[in-house]
Write a structure and sequence with these properties.
With 273 residues, the protein is mostly beta strands. The chain is 13% helix and 37% strand. It has helices at residues 2-19, 26-29, 240-253, and strands at residues 30-34, 39-41, 48-52, 58-62, 66-76, 85-92, 104-112, 117-126, 132-135, 145-151, 155-160, 163-169, 184-191, 205-210, 215-218, 254-257. The strands form 2 sheets. It has an 8-stranded antiparallel β-sheet. Strands 2, 3, 5, 10, 11, 12, 14 and 15 form an 8-stranded antiparallel β-sheet that branches. The chain is globular.
Length: 273
């Protein structure tokens, strides 16, 4: 059974990679945020490059904020091997100028270096520290893959190439806060000492992005309404097959889990499953 599930993971990922066509015009959904000439978009608005060198990186941000939805992007991280370069896709309620360690809501994908380790994190009106990291079954610098975040009133779900890898459930009834503030969508490339040492002799490092459309509810609308498909009961929790696939994926590929240590464990660890 374990072999069958792992085979399913690989086949699902390969199918998604080979059949997904990049759609969604960048200029409809996003705008340049920072990076000057380290940011570029093709004339059709279908492909964005973010460049990192010793001077600075780059980033872009959604034009609007949202309060629920099914968000995704197609991303290819830099090919040149190094530590320290962080390539991201995330949702955040923090203002652009806020201290990143200040309390806020946020859901992250962060590639730590370019060797294939992706870290997910959830900030729950606090400083985060809910890291779960994975060594992926593919090389994320060789092709585009889809990184997805589902957010509704029941759960936050992280999926890669349609494979569920992490779930953060709503446990407000147990006294645990749950993200409810409007969030923007961002992607960026930058460097951090905590992600390893950068080999600047390999620079520039170039991250590439495609497929900029998504399904989401704009802030100040009735964003928990079931008129939005991602709020319907089918999206309230994983089905049994998805649970088995996620459990097998996590056993095989997860290399760090904040819930595994008493010093980093948080109340939701016994509830998220």
């Amino acid at each position: 059974m374990a072999f069958l599930i792992i085979s399913t993971i690989i086949l699902l990922g390969a199918f998604s990679t080979q059949t997904k066509v990049a759609v969604g015009n960048f200029h409809k959904y996003y705008s340049y945020l920072w990076g000057n000439d380290h940011f570029s978009v093709d004339p059709q608005g279908n492909h964005v490059q973010l460049l990192m060198d010793p001077s600075y990186g780059a980033g872009f941000k959604s034009k609007s904020a949202y309060e629920s939805g099914l968000f995704h992007i197609r991303m290819k991280i830099p090919e040149k091997k190094t530590g320290g370069i962080v390539t991201t896709f995330y949702l955040t309620a923090a203002p652009d100028n806020q201290d990143p360690n200040a309390n806020h809501f946020e859901f992250d994908y962060e590639f730590l270096g370019t060797n294939g380790t992706v870290q997910t994190n959830v900030y729950n009106n606090d400083g985060g520290h809910r890291e779960q990291s994975f060594n992926l079954w593919f090389n994320p610098s060789k092709d585009f893959h889809t990184y997805e975040i589902l957010w509704n009133s029941k759960q936050i779900q992280f999926r890669i190439d349609n494979i569920p890898i992490r779930v953060f459930k709503n446990h407000r009834a147990r006294g645990i806060e749950y993200p409810s503030r409007p969030m923007y969508i961002l992607s960026s490339i930058w460097n951090a000492d905590w992600a390893g040492a950068v080999d600047w002799s390999q620079s520039p490092f170039v991250a590439q992005f495609q497929d900029f459309d998504f399904n989401a509810c704009p802030a100040q609308a009735r964003c928990s309404s079931e008129r939005y498909f991602w709020n319907k009961p089918d999206f309230w929790k994983l089905n049994d097959k998805e649970k088995r696939i996620m459990a097998t994926f996590r056993r095989r590929y997860m290399i760090y889990n904040y819930c595994s240590s008493p010093s980093t464990r948080k109340p939701e660890c016994s509830l998220n499953g």
